[in-house]
Amino acid sequence: MTLTIVAAGRVTQAFICFLLCLSWGSSCPPSCQCTERAGAKAVLCSAQHLEEIPKDIPQDAVFLKLDANSITRIPSNAFRHLSHLEELDLSRNAIEKIDGAAFKGVAAGLRTLDLSSNRIRSIPKEALLMLNAKLRLANNPWHCECTLQEVLWEARLDPDSVQDITCHTAPREEYVGKPLLQVLDAGVNFCSVRQRTTDVAMFITMFGWFAMVIAYVVCYVRHNREDTRKHVEYLKSLPNTQNPAETISTVL
Known about the structure:
The chain folds into 2 domains: 2-159, Leucine-rich repeat, LRR (right-handed beta-alpha superhelix) (Alpha-Beta Horseshoe), CATH 3.80.10; 200-251. It is 40% helix and 13% strand. The chain has 6 helices and 10 strands, in the order H-E-E-E-E-E-E-E-H-E-E-H-E-H-H-H. It has helices spanning 2-25, 125-129, 146-154, 180-185, 190-237, 244-251; strands at 33-37, 40-44, 61-65, 73-74, 87-89, 97-98, 112-114, 134-136, 142-143, 167-169. Strands 1-2-3-5-7-8 form a 6-stranded mixed sheet, with no helix packed on it. Strands 4-6 form a two-stranded parallel sheet. The chain has a two-stranded parallel ribbon with strand order 9-10. The radius of gyration is 35 Å and the shape is elongated. Residues 27-63 form the LRRNT domain. It is a single-pass membrane protein. This is Leucine-rich repeat-containing protein 3. Belongs to the LRRC3 family.
């Protein structure tokens, strides 16, 4: 009888745990709507005045829309638990910063990532190059430099929006306001500019070290000469008991 009660209690606990896990896995954030699209869960959080990414997004979400909010940053591992995610829309927010591991955990299955119409000036290369998703990066105040150029060359960009990746700022004023693709097609290579800058900095550093070594050698020689002169003068001031030249040669 006691064993039966214990067994029944364990079954009840397991069933309650199952219900809680099922409820947690399929829950929906209060500011979002969760629907089914072709048998896949879609989480719709558009235009909800969100300032950060909700932390209770269902794990089985396949489509996630967070567009038209006030999100300013995508922190590391923000979507790590969403292993089924295929489409992610973060357009029309106020995103300024994206961490290098922002999309860690969704790289394998993510097919579309929309970051257009934000406030992104630069983005860590590792945050995007690990993705196989088609990227939309248009209408951001981009600073055109080597990292953005490498993203353009190596990432999968949406061909319909690539012309709208415009240089808001750039190393040279003549590039400002122009599409990045147009600037690169004209033969500009931002990475070579950075390499030349690095080479110049290295040359200046090496020259500085060389100048320090020369200065040290000169000071060392001068110091030794002064010590030798003082020593010779001291010897000359001694009583002249023998030939000064012999005394000096003997001491040396």
